[in-house]
Amino acid sequence: MLPHAARRFSPLARLLGKLALPAGVVVLQALLVLATVIYVLHIKVVQPAALVCTVVSAALTFLLIVCALNRLLGDAGKALAMLLLAVQLSSSGGVLPVELSGTFFASVSPWLPITWVVHGLKASLFGAFDGAWQTSWQQVLLAGAGATLVAMYLGRWRYVHHRALRPALDL
Prior knowledge:
By secondary structure, the protein is mainly α. It has six helices and two strands; from the N terminus they run βααααααβ.
């Protein structure tokens, strides 16, 4: 929900207004995960800057994908986002080699953003794939850009009087 005054804002401004706080939360979560990997688990990172770029862009991309699905399909988009999460976990090669996951997961794997995130993580953390993380990062950014365009221009915004606005969570 957005206030009626937001009708005159550009699609990008509406999206940024809606996602500013959640984006801050996911970036903070990503940085906490990175701090845990480096300072708690003491994992030696081959390319720290690449790891930060990969993790932060992945967090924002997945937020944008969920937002785009929600804007496009409403509550059904939330359910589809959960289904997409399950499919991505099974086909990314991060938990189990994709070759052992079955033909369906192997066939969809190259098309899912999480596959590129896992590729980028392996490259930046351990130097796998000759440390070539940029291509994976670009694929994740491309998915995020696509989700941004969908979230900006498809679906519809719900506008309400400013007194009808309320927090998304009642804490």
